[in-house]
Amino acid sequence: MTPRSSAVLRRTTALISTAVLVAFGLAGCGSSDEPTTADTPAQTQNTGDGGDFACNGSGEVVFWHFFEDREADVITEAITNFEALCPDITVKESGGQDDDVIIQAISAGQKIDVALSSAGDQVGVFCSTGAFEDLAARISADGIDMNEIVATAASYSEFQGIRCTLPMLTDSYALMYNQDLFDAAGITEVPKTLDELADAAVKLTTYNDDGSIDVLGLMPFTLYYQMTEWNWATTVDAHFLNEEANASVISADPGWPVFFNWQKDLIEKLGGYDKLNTWFAAIGNQWTEENDFQTGRVAMMFDGEWRTAFIADQAPDMNYGVAPLPMSAEHQDLYGAGFLTGNVIGIPMGAGNPDAAWTFIKYMALNEDAQVQMGNGLKNIPTFLPALNSPKLEVDELYQVFVDAAFNPNSRTIQSSLIGPAPQEMLGDFAERWQSGAETDLTAGLANLSKQVDDQLALAGAG
């Protein structure tokens, strides 16, 4: 996995632009608002959570998702449970499929009945192009109460009134810290502000005899693991687009200069870009036991709730803690808030078995037992409120920090647009130039960046 692959979300995402609209050939045309009629009568099954589950449809459902290895096993268990509940439907599972692969497959006319994406900022593309079916008619026909879905998750799974996906578990981000390294450095308080975060990063950093970095307190690069543009934006309450998602506000938002100046200052305090970049060159794979945080190579980082499951599996003896994201001095009143985004699930254009696909989607996104089972296995946060409030959901003090952020009214979530994650990717590219010293005029650089985003939006038809 390359460093840039995690710079927007925790899974690989493609840089989406107007090329996607051309690939789909769908701009201005969507799928029918009317769901098709099931070929077979519904089999009503008791779900075990106090309600009945209608098994509409039959036959095979082709399901693509991005999970791999241990996490994929959790999804397979959910599929097995679904097939036991609805024996007339079988699910053909294909894991390890990122958004780029899924988009290419859909545009090529490949039959995928259900697709799971980790990138909420792709929803604008999925919904506006008709790449995913508008689920409104199905939701209405089944009398689904959208108030039973976590509000932030409900918001990032639709675009401009078109609900072409449902949320299926969400991710909440926080500060994770190595308690043993904190103790060794004499740090007794978890940083709550960016200034405190920088001070702790300097105290926690140790050097080899040749002056190179041994243990890094915090990596300030935006291309490191989950130290993403969205998480840093949360710490300074910065934004990418206006409320209509049709124009950039990067150059006008006061938060971005605060972050970039703070970042540049910390880079210098830690020894400069070249020294940090040398340390960075030996980065461990984020998803294996070589993860820098798990090996003690870095003392603090931003990460999602799923990291607790990876640590339990790959570094069970690690002594660590979790705290809310630190905030800038101007926004200390927002402490406790975090950044939320998560998986979205829908029926791609050209699905061969849409009715059975909808039944499967309802199970994965709107079934208490399924959401609890996947929440416990992945340590993701359920987006179905009955599951989130279930006594069967395993919640310890570390996981609780992420849950609290998920319900904090000041927490941020993904903002989708017609150009998908392009604004964040473009800001990430600028950040790389800025932190390396290749970009020296912050004001002019941000202004040029905003213009580039606006140009992309105009090409996509945003107005």
The SS-based structural class is: alpha/beta
Query: What overall geometry do the principal axes of the alpha carbons give?
Result: globular
Mean pLDDT: 89
Q: Give the number of DSSP strands.
A: 12
As a percent range, the share of strand residues is: 5-15%
Describe this structure in words.
This protein has 463 residues and is α/β, with parallel strands linked by helices. It has two domains: 3-171 and 340-410, 3-Layer(aba) Sandwich (D-Maltodextrin-Binding Protein, domain 2), CATH 3.40.190; 176-337 and 418-454, Periplasmic binding protein-like II (D-Maltodextrin-Binding Protein, domain 2), CATH 3.40.190.10. The protein contains 19 helices and twelve strands. The strands form two sheets. Strands 3, 4, 5, 6, 7, 8, 9, 10, 11 and 12 form a ten-stranded mixed sheet that branches. Helix 2 (69-85) packs antiparallel against helix 15 (368-378), helix 9 packs across helix 10 (255-269) and helix 18 runs antiparallel to helix 19. The radius of gyration is 22 Å and the shape is globular. The relative contact order is 0.20.
